[in-house]
## 1
Amino acid sequence: MATISLRHNPQVNTTTQQRGVISEEIQGLIRVHKNGHVERPPIVPNVSCKVASERGVTARDVIINRETNLWARIYVPLSCQSKVPLLVYFHGGGFCVGSASWSCYHEFLTNLASKANCVIVSVDYHLAPENRLPSAYDDGFNVLMWLKREALNGCSSVQNWWMSHCNFSCMFLAGDSAGANIAYNVTTRLGSTILNPLSLKGVILIQPFFGGEERTCSEKHSHQPPNSALTLSVSDTYWRLALPLGATRDHPYCNPLASMAKLRDLRLPSIMVCVSEMDILKDRNLEFSNTLAKAGKRVETFVYKGVGHAFQVLHNYQLSHPRTQEMIYHIRNFLNQ
């Protein structure tokens, strides 16, 4: 497994470049110019769905909405003899970078589909700042409505090559970092929406990217190595680029604990929260889990020792590989409980 290096200097750069003044920059990942132009250097390679897999998984890209260019990469384990759970996945990247075609996600989700024995729909949602929140939530909701329509079409659907393997009564939403935030917010948006024949059984939140104006202890004091995927200043930059203009980090998109009354009233399925011990989000993730449990929600929390944010896709810690295998084992159990 190749290590992906995200060595960045998250300074806001205001020097004049060819395209004008830069208003926000996370070095190596994104550069936003004052005139609105956005650059995303290719720090992680994009790979075709046809990249050979030794794990017995077929992957194909599917257009969900041609007008908006919303698409997904679908993974089907070849070994499934009966219908298996359906996992709708949202990649990370602070809402601003990343793709369903990034090599690190292609590798992780191929591995997950094989070992957890599930069909995965990996959504390539629209990115900020060109498409600020709630754009990504809209995409997630629209994907579920598309899945519902295709499932109702049954065997006549052109998607039957993968849908025939799915147990639609056993659907899960999942994501890491910003993708976990999307999975959670799409879940809360569903409310009483009728999804039949789909049935949402659970949500898997891997290092969910939440925030708030008040800093937690791990945000203030967690020492991050040079190859860390998330520092406090990087986190703040992502939120400035992703939240609606004028919003603070206590906006509900960022801080789901800002309104306790609303949280208690939410209809939520079982939730699995994966926390990394060395992540700046550790304390915020644990507070989120504990608050959900106190509000009477069904929550399972797992803490992965000796690793930080996005270890399962970046392989940037010594213990990344064994902890990733632990995580996949926990996900498989959650899908089949």
Note: Residues 240 and 246 are 9 Å apart (CA to CA).
## 2
Amino acid sequence: MDPKVSNGSGLQDEHITSLLVFGFLQDGSSCSFRKDLQALGRELPVPARWGQRHDEELQTDGGRHSHFLPETDSESQEEVIQNIARQLAQIGDRMDRSIPQTLVDHLAMQFTNGSLSEEDRREHLAAALEAVLHTYPKDMEMEKTMLLLTMLLAKKVASHTPSLLRDVFRTTVDFINQNLLPYVRNLVRNQ
């Protein structure tokens, strides 16, 4: 899990990971960072319906669909990614108690340090992940556990300090692309 190693993720991979992390954060998000998440959603190439709650009317503005994925498959692939994010968020909700608040506090403090580089932030995220990996369910794939805990750490830090959402989101997407990209690709491909 070397944060310096890159798997050569391209724009499509980054887009898929962004959609996955955004969907995970959006599902069941606490009120503490919902406004920040909605603002982030407007900046991302995500479908308009992702920025809404499930009980709201769907709106289309023609400018929200990804230009990174092939147009014919874009909407269906985005729906697959959203469904995966929703399922992972439900599992993450059950794992939520395995992350000590002191770890979240420390990680949030690291993210507020403006002198840290993106690489330093990924290293702090990796260290926090290592600290909670021993609590994972033994019957779950290691990659799935790492993906869940990484996104859960991001969600908890954003809940702790909503102003960090953009930084945490970017670092989480980068970290997943560098360490878990083959797993994410397979997860999307096999759905």
Note: Confidence is low (pLDDT under 50) at residues 1-8, 48-72.
## 3
Amino acid sequence: LVVKTYESGAVSSYLHRMQVGDEVSVRGPRGTFQYKPNMVRALGMVAGGTGITPMYQIIQHILANPEDKTRVSVVFANVSEEDILLREQLELWAADHDQFDIHYVLNNPPAEWTGGVGFVSKEIIQEYLPAPADDVKVLLCGPPPMVKAMGALLGDLGYEAPRVISKPDDQVFKF
């Protein structure tokens, strides 16, 4: 379980105060996505902040299976470099697996930053995600305004427009 604690976050700060052995009931996410090996040729992912967590589970599942040849491309947006969750593991996977790559985008990058800057744009999606095709899916997870903007942008680029609540067969799936 990955939980990022936000000072003003009601749920994250509550979870942070819990002790090992405490129980909590949760529900969600909306929609159901079950990954199956080789279900698509390429899987694009756009994650914002803690939205990397469902992506991380799917990436881990794909890369742990030598029979799974799915190509995975991730665009991971954060406010600052310090906000990049799971960075060490993501970069190890990128170095060790030819089928996986990741591109970071920061709103407030440090001076020496060589990744993307600002918000995820049409140009970033075109450069780093697989082009729309019948054997491609794109997964979205992050802050609601980002997910809404990405859904519209992907639709403009020729991907199927995402539904309000995603279905397993959707080309663009929103967590």
Note: The CA atoms of residues 5 and 38 lie 35 Å apart.
